[in-house]
Amino acid sequence: MTRYQLAEHPTIEVEVITAGLACCTLEVEAAATAGLLLPVSGEQISPAPSILVISGTVTDALLPAVLAQIDRFPEARLMSFGACATSGGPYWDSPPVTKGIDQFADVAVYVAGCPPRPDAFVAALLDLAHSGVAP
Amino acid sequence: MTAVMAMESVPVDTWHERVHQVKQRGFGFFDFLTAVDRNSFVEVVVHIVREDLSDSYLISTMLSNENLHIDSIETLFPGAGWHEREVGEMFGVKFEGNDMQKLLRHETLGLPPLRKNIVLSARVVTEWPGAAEPEIKQDGRKVGNPSRRRQRPPGAPESWLQQ
Amino acid sequence: MIHSFIALLPDKCTSCMLCVRECPAWCIHLDSHTEEVTDAGARRPKKINVLDSFDIDYSLCMYCGICVDVCPFDALEWDQHRALISDSRADLTLGITQLTSENDSAN
Fold first, then answer.
1. What architecture (CATH level 2) is domain A2-116?
2. CATH number (domain holding residue C67)
């Protein structure tokens, strides 16, 4: 879990947990390395919304591990990042691929794209931050 | 990569022996092993290359659908083990002497997906949006377009749709 | 060229269905009907296709651009980036209005 500040909105901080499964993860990482997100270090007093990012292809074989991760962070809201996590994407017809993580868990925000661009990731974080801190 | 490629098809029972012979003639570099579904049989192919890359050998054999068993060449080329496991998962070929552990696919998935008789169910149960045609309107409502030939979705042969 | 969004120019679309049929993700849905129009001076009325709806499901789209390439009338084109973010998967399916208006996003 990493705490980030949105570079363009310094007052907004989010806790991000990534479940990186395929290539979309590179865009999530690019958002951090390109300076769109700034890591926040030191002791945290104010609560920040925690967000679990599912990025990449979820396969049926890997699904239990992904669900275990979701259960580990019950307070985190789910971001379905990219076409694969949302619907299976280019692998929509592939037997071993799960057609959307939303069949198994409540998704707070969907980000379309194959892959979505890093700024779409930041826009989604902003969207979640604006809709409030989960209790 | 190589200047000359010799090709040869051998019977299944001489597969291991023939690969061994070719290896002893100086073709010591294993390139790949794969399979092709020829509908009535499965063709297993191995490509091995002379160590100075000057020429190579493509050896193939045909397995009948009823008996997809073949000797492993893992003892000759340890690198072939992975390729054999992949062919095992994708085409259902059993390589005798290889432990045939699952390499890529989940244990619970049964049928080998690269066989042509495997139906890609998603393409059958999903309604293909391309089947629609501009519809004829009568009295303000659409009555279809019966004159046009019915379109078939790509990647879904007619035989799948009948099942 | 930023391959970030596929926009529709509905006036150019003839409902030929090529994009729908070529899409590997089956994510384009098109509905249309035929109408008879008589041009001034023409002897007989001609049949034209009228576009009723055109939807791209961006939750499936892989931005391969085959639809853009295959369109014989350049009715689909690459467009500037739009961040498509929504709290509902259904909202990622964009219709004619959303596919054409420049600065509209899914939410």
1. 3-Layer(aba) Sandwich (3.40)
2. 3.30.70.3270
CB contact under 8 A, A120 and C84: yes
Domain range for residue C46?
5-100
User: Given an 8 Å threshold on Cβ–Cβ distance, is A96 in contact with B105?
Assistant: yes
Residue pLDDT, tens place only, C40-65 = 888 888 888 999 999 999 999 999 99
CA of B85 vs chain A CAs: smallest distance (Å): 18
pLDDT at C105: 45
User: DSSP E strands: which ranges in chain B?
Assistant: 4-9, 29-37, 41-49, 55-64, 69-71, 94-96, 135-138, 141-142
Interface contact C72, partner A, CB < 8 A: no
The DSSP code sequence of A81-93 is ESHHHHH-GGGTT
The residues spanned by each domain of chain A are 2-116
**pTM of structure:** 0.82
Nearest CA-CA partner of A8 in A117, A131, A125: A125
Is C107 part of any domain? no
Number of domains in chain C: 1
Predicted complex ipTM: 0.87
